[in-house]
Design brief:
The protein has 583 residues and is of the alpha/beta class. Helices cover 40% and strands 15% of the residues.
């Protein structure tokens, strides 16, 4: 119930009471007339508290903030969009959240669906039948209730579906007339505790025993992990399993799955590690086929790292949310032991089953020693490689080394890493949720909003939220800086400014090379120069602290120190613009 203990007077008041009951702390939106009823109810009926308005300048930012918040906390927040135009702006961010299995409550206003109540022109061009059709293929569920009495069922069901594994966004569309209409009779408020989601799905016992038998008898077991870390407790269990088996772990980076400084971490050594494997245990790996080999960029031909007789175990829930429209379900991979289960439960059971069969053997101990030596050599090699460059700009690895030194005494959270995984290879990640994972939808525009969402999640803590932000991605949603400034969100943004869409430049160079054409012209249509963008000045224009552009390595350390001091002492965001090499 709201703080004033008033009874709801309008349909939108019911929505706010339900959001309070469900514990939804924030609602991010760019204001719009089709949800003005909900807007008023949040501010005047609900006191702008649980939920609190997070004002944004673009719907893609609103949803990305909710996305980052969900990855940081494991809880959903709301993002509200204005009819079909706001929803169309938000679609890329919703797709990113879908691919990332992030629980988000996306709400929208529409109508009025009663055409006699519509204003000429604007209410007609901004109303769809049915609005959820636009996103139905990449949300877990959508609904458009047709009365005030139906609002509770819609919102409670949507919340439960969003947070039930595998998690994902839902879309709830509320008719503006229902929001704004005065209630003619009381609407009972359900007890939301009786609508809690079901417990996680355990593994099939027979399949689990078969998996444990294969792993214990394997000469070279390998573990692949991608989304395991969405449940932080599962990371500890995964470490336990790897040590029990003496098995190397390849972290795919969908979340923080395995500590990179652990001796059994073999990430970035996939070809040689998988080539030795006789049994592969894949845990929440959506693209299992792609994880087991490599694709030639020029020919698109794929070659597997695995031996033909290698056996594969896959534990996942992804088949429960397969859709037809998007091929995010990936290429079908043959699997010897498929297990549909929550990986957090499955890993715990695998540890017990493997130990019952006996794993304290000399073979396991030898594997541990050998893998520890290889791990130490890779870490040393990464530190050596980090400072190498072509002399044109600051090497990305060297930048990440300096960022690590600037925050080494802080309790930090990294919102996302660069394509080169430099932070993972160079920093000591000691506990789950220090890294929130990559953007699994690979849609540009994710980084700024998601980082602001993480900063929102941690704004009342002592954590230092850090974003290694690429320039091309940032330019899709720069207004996220305004939201960070307006809501006083402490955030350190380090701009990896290579002044190009480098991945596209590489593709263009490869096509030209394959066709025998001029590779030197690959920059046309990909470079972000003439003019070069001053991101530090852009940050200052939003009222934030800006450093740079930093072009010399000797200037980088002091700039980072000043920025960290601003974030810590002034409790605001700071951006350090660093000109770096392409990769």
């Amino acid at each position: 119930m709201n703080e004033s203990m008033r009874e709801p007077e309008y349909g939108s008041d019911i929505v706010v009471d339900l959001m309070k009951a469900l514990g939804i702390e924030y609602a991010a939106f760019n204001p719009g007339a089709t949800f003005r009823g909900i807007h008023d109810s949040i501010v005047n009926y609900g006191g702008n508290r649980c939920p609190e308005v997070i004002e944004c300048c673009h719907e893609e930012v609103s949803v990305a903030i909710a996305h980052g918040y969900a990855k940081a906390t494991g809880k959903p927040m709301a993002a509200i969009t204005h009819n079909i135009v706001g929803l169309q702006h938000a679609t890329m961010a919703i797709f990113n959240a879908w691919c990332d299995r992030a629980p988000i409550i996306v709400m929208g206003g529409t109508g009025p669906m009663d055409t006699s109540l519509r204003r000429p022109w604007i209410d007609w061009v901004h109303t769809a039948l049915v609005q959820g059709n636009l996103v139905r293929d990449y949300v877990k569920w959508d609904d458009q209730p047709y009365s005030a009495a139906a609002l509770a069922d819609s919102l409670i069901r949507g919340y439960r579906i969003a947070v039930t594994e595998p998690c994902g966004p839902v879309y709830l569309c509320f008719d503006s007339a229902i929001q704004e209409r005065r209630l003619s009779e009381p609407v009972p408020m359900p007890d939301v505790s009786r609508y809690a989601p079901a417990p996680p799905l355990p593994p099939n016992p027979d399949a689990l025993r078969k998996a444990a038998d294969l792993l214990v008898k394997a000469a070279s077991p390998v573990i692949l992990a991608d989304f395991v870390g969405r449940n932080p407790r599962a990371v500890e269990s995964l470490v336990d399993l790897a040590e029990t088996l003496g098995a190397p772990v390849l972290d795919r980076g969908g979340r923080y799955n395995f500590p990179p400084n652990h001796p059994l971490d073999a990430t970035c050594a996939e070809p040689e590690t998988l080539a030795e494997a006789d049994v592969v245990l894949a845990l929440d790996v959506p693209d299992l086929y792609g994880a087991l080999g490599r694709t030639d960029k020029a020919t698109r031909s794929f070659s597997s790292y695995l031996k033909q007789d290698a056996r594969i175990i896959h534990v996942s829930l992804d088949e429960l949310v397969t859709r037809s429209w998007s091929s995010d379900y990936q290429k079908l991979q043959p699997v010897d032991v498929p297990i549909i289960a929550d990986t957090g439960l499955a890993i715990e059971e695998l540890v017990r089953a493997c130990r019952q069969q006996g794993t304290d053997t000399e073979m396991v101990r030898q594997r541990r020693r050998r893998l520890a030596g290889q791990h130490a050599a890779r870490r040393a090699g990464a530190r050596s490689q980090a400072s190498s460059g072509d002399g044109t700009a600051i090497p990305q690895g060297a930048l990440v080394v300096q960022v690590g030194q600037a925050i080494e005494h802080e309790d930090w959270v990294l919102t996302h890493d660069t394509w080169g995984q430099w932070a993972r290879r160079l920093w000591d990640w000691e506990h789950p949720q220090q890294y929130l994972g990559r953007c699994n939808g690979a849609g540009l525009g994710y980084g700024a909003g998601a980082s602001v969402g993480a900063a929102l999640a941690y704004r009342n803590s002592d954590k230092l939220v850090v974003s290694l932000q690429s320039d091309g991605d940032f330019l899709f949603t720069p207004s996220a800086l305004w939201t960070a400034a307006h809501h006083r969100l402490p955030l350190l943004i380090v701009m990896l400014n290579n002044r190009t869409y480098y991945n596209s430049e590489e593709h263009q160079a490869e096509v030209a090379r394959t066709r025998g054409r001029d590779v030197r012209r690959a920059w046309i249509g990909t470079r972000l120069t003439d003019p070069a963008i001053d991101f530090a000045q852009m940050a200052r224009s939003y009222g934030l602290h800006g450093e740079g552009p930093v072009e010399r390595i000797e200037d980088l350390g002091p700039a980072l120190e000043r920025a960290v001091r601003v974030v810590r002492e002034q409790k605001k965001a700071a951006l350090v613009d660093v000109v770096v090499q392409g990769r």
